[in-house]
Amino acid sequence: MGRNYMAMGILAIGLTFVLYVIAAPVEKPAPGAPAPPQGGNAATGEELPAGHPPTEQAASPQLLKLIDSLITVTKQNPNDPKVQLMLANAQYDAKLFGDAVPNYRDYLKTDPKNPDVRTDMATAMFELGLVDEAIAVLQQVAKEFDDHVNAAYNLAMFYISKRDRDSTRLWLQEVITTAPNSPQAERAKQVIEMLKSGHPPVGQSQGATK
Q1: What is the structure's pLDDT at 42?
Q2: Would you give the end-to-end CA distance of the chain in angstroms?
Q3: For residue 59, what pLDDT is reported?
Q4: pLDDT in tens, 116-152
Q5: CA-to-CA distance for 202 and 165, rounded, in angstroms?
Q6: DSSP string, the chain
Q7: What is the largest CA-CA distance in the chain?
Q8: Vertex 44 angle, CA 49 and 186, to 5°
Q9: Phi, psi values for residue 46, rounded to 5°
Q10: Quick one: CA dihedral 189, 48, 205, 148, positive or negative?
């Protein structure tokens, strides 16, 4: 009976997760980010514009149901890192950053060098106002993975919030040098031009990326 119950539960989570992935935003929103023009397609994996605002899907019933299901599964399988990471990502998308961060930390106990998860966790920290902690995490990621473009780009965004224009420009230039043809590099160039003209206002993010 127990195994049948577990199998049915996993199947239900799988179906919910498929619905969530279809509707999920491609890129994480950032605080104070301006609304972009229409663009980006979650189904095809195309990247949405920088700083896209929170979408309705971020608080959709499917997402909330998925979170509840994943919480149940993690309680039953506390040592399953894949479920832990799924839960952290879903909580991030629901803007439950205070819940997402400890789950990212738990996942990283089994995969401590993962640069993508560490970057996501740092962005969640930033959303919680833990700017210095977020910067420390990404500084280490950038040191260990000098080609991790999102880490460099997000560092620039975090430094904007600290009104540190020199560090912002340094990391924006790092993005351009490391991946000159990437979407992040295009954004970096735009932000550099904005900084030259006094925009965006000091302390406003242009959208950290995942």
Answers
A1: 35
A2: 41
A3: 61
A4: 999 999 999 999 999 999 999 999 999 999 999 999 9
A5: 8
A6: -HHHHHHHHHHHHHHHHHHHHHHS-SS---TTPPPPPS--BTTTTBPPPTTPPPPGGGG-HHHHHHHHHHHHHHHH-TT-HHHHHHHHHHHHHTT-HHHHHHHHHHHHTTSTT-HHHHHHHHHHHHHTT-HHHHHHHHHHHHHH-TT-HHHHHHHHHHHHHTT-HHHHHHHHHHHHHH-TTSHHHHHHHHHHHHHHTT-SPTT-------
A7: 67
A8: 30
A9: -70, 145
A10: negative
Query: 113-210 has which CATH code?
Result: 1.25.40.10
pLDDT, block means (10 residues), the chain with 210 residues: 41 41 36 36 35 46 92 92 94 95 96 96 96 97 95 95 94 96 94 81 53
